[in-house]
TrEMBL record:
This is DUF905 domain-containing protein. Signal peptide: none annotated. Belongs to the UPF0401 family.
Length: 86
């Protein structure tokens, strides 16, 4: 059984960010500079809730809190059986 996806408390990789963004309707990568980017949480109306650069100290810790409180999970579909989304 696969482990649920989680961001580390500090910096995070593009692969980790892509995996988390794929699990939530309102979490995305923005300001992509190839070597660095922001992971962003938005409200249902598109307004910004929280964002942080992937290289920032403690970035994952803040993002995890806001994703837990405001993240909108992608609908469970039959083809997502066995998904590792939290």
């Amino acid at each position: 059984m696969a482990q649920p996806l989680r961001l580390p408390d500090g910096t995070f990789t593009r692969a980790e960010a892509n995996a988390i963004a794929a699990c939530y309707q309102n979490v995305a990568i923005e300001d992509d500079q190839q070597t660095h980017f922001r992971l962003v949480v938005r409200d249902t109306d598109g307004s910004l809730i929280w964002r942080d650069w992937n290289f920032a100290a403690g970035a994952g810790q803040g993002l995890k809190r806001f994703i837990a409180d405001y993240g909108i999970p992608v609908s469970e579909a039959p083809d997502n059986a066995g998904s590792t989304c939290p």
